[in-house]
Write a structure and sequence with these properties.
Layout: E1 2-7, E2 10-13, E3 18-26, E4 33-39, E5 46-52, E6 58-60, E7 68-73, E8 78-83, E9 92-99, E10 116-117, E11 121-126
Parallel strand pairs: 2-11
Antiparallel strand pairs: 1-3, 3-8, 4-5, 4-9, 5-6, 7-8, 9-10, 9-11
């Protein structure tokens, strides 16, 4: 089993930055793809970004492209999401996810691709 724990959420003013982190434990050696999703009240879970540990491929939702950067630290079994120029519409609960398989193209956008999920960390952007 794999456990994922997010951290780094909080309250920030529009235009500010936050860095989210996700620590993996347990059977973490089986993880090949990690991603971030977010969900605002009354809305569907939304893809944010994903990264593969082999091949250095990254994927971003259009809404965050150019503002967010996903990265991994293989030695520490962590994935981070650097969020710059935050907007009020970024306000949501952010979730870390991990997959035992590689993904490509649109498959990386689908929640069903991922096998493990964290419990979330709240991000609030004020205007």
């Amino acid at each position: 089993q794999v456990q994922l724990v997010e951290s780094g959420g909080g309250l920030v003013q529009a235009g500010g930055s936050l860095r989210l982190s996700c620590a993996a434990s347990g059977r973490s050696f089986s993880i090949y793809t990690m991603g971030w999703f977010r969900q605002a009240p009354g809305m569907e879970r939304e893809f944010v970004a994903a990264i593969t540990w082999i091949g250095d491929r990254t994927y971003y939702a259009d809404s965050v492209k150019g503002r967010f950067t996903i990265s991994t630290d293989n030695a520490k079994n962590t994935v981070s999401l650097q969020m710059n120029n935050l907007k009020p519409e970024d306000t949501a609960d952010f979730y870390c996810a991990a997959s035992n398989d590689y993904c490509s193209g649109y498959d990386c956008w689908r929640p069903s691709t991922y096998d493990y999920w964290g419990q979330g960390t709240q991000v609030t952007v004020s205007s």
